[in-house]
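Hey, quick one: can you model this chain's 3D structure?
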Amino acid sequence: MSLPVSGLLAVRYLKSARRDAYVTFLSLLAAGGIALGVAALVLVLAALSGLQAFLREDVLARTPHMEIELPDGTDPAPLIDDLGSREGVVAVHRLLRGHGWLLPGGGSWVDVAVVGFEGGVPTFFQQSREQQEDTLADGVLVPESILYRYGLQRGSLVELASPRPTLTPLGPRPRLHQVRIAGVFTAGSTEENEARVAVPFELARSLFGSGRQRLEVRAGSLEEALELAPRLAIGLPDGAVLRSWKDLNRGLFFALQLEKRLMFLSIFLIVPIAAMALVTVLALLVSAKRGEIGMLHALGATPRQVERAFFGLGSLLAGTGLVLGGLLGVLGSVLLDRFQLVAPPGDVYFVTHVPFRLEGPDLFGIFGATLLFTLASAWVAARRASAFRPVEALRNP
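Sure thing. Here's the predicted structure for all 397 residues.
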């Protein structure tokens, strides 16, 4: 073998004599603890990344690429023409948002978020190809859940009520409009109560007034929208606020990142505990090999070579645990996702199975942090071995 002396000693100390069998057993436990911590981290972060990716896709599917909130009294027509001529802009539509109530029948009111649109139906109302051909000029677009829950169908008449009252000689009266169901859409899996409806812009204005109008600006993709947003923000009227899809969901994305970091820190505690076990194992091995260490010093081995030998032994144990744990976590994540083995109750959670998603930054962080802790632990134990004096080691074997 072409290994240096320190490498040969590290490999030699992996095989303990019978009287040191307990040290070998503890070494295996230390490596197994590291492997368990790495595998747990990979599996948990893969599951969390899969769930968060599903949540992000579901939320972004009903979020505009960009939204411009206009100040009161602004004429949006010139701005729509200007934005529509910009490079990278696919479409610009006028929106009006408000909250109201839908009376589908049977005396029960449904609290809904009302989106008034001008032109085509907003892209964040997911419709099938057949449904997209429907005209909503004089009707309302409702989620499938309301349609099925109340036994309605396309063409059924419902009432929309606004919290903005109408003043009459008899006092304020609720502002009601009777409309027909002109189409349905599929709400997102994570939408609470799926309470959104879309109506033509003029109907929304009669319900809520002009209010603070918004413009939905659609780009070619989400990434293009982020690049386009700073350029579109230049030249907007005073008081107008442009928000990209990232700004509109900033709170959600921050919560997801915080959740992943806290989960990483809580489960990563397994690795420092296993690293401390590794220090204990190497310390026991150093105590058991006091006589051999003294003989090595007497034969001319330097303290640096002894230190490298025990550091190499600790690195072998840490590397073995890291590789085994990484393989177990990666293979487990792939198999669990491929065969959909983790299936929560469908009536409680919004997913039929837990998706596992391996991400490069997560794996890099897990392997890097584990190597840092385990190698530092091995170095601490190796320093103890190099501190022995040859005469003391031979006198007290």
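One thing worth noting: Residues 66-244 form one domain.
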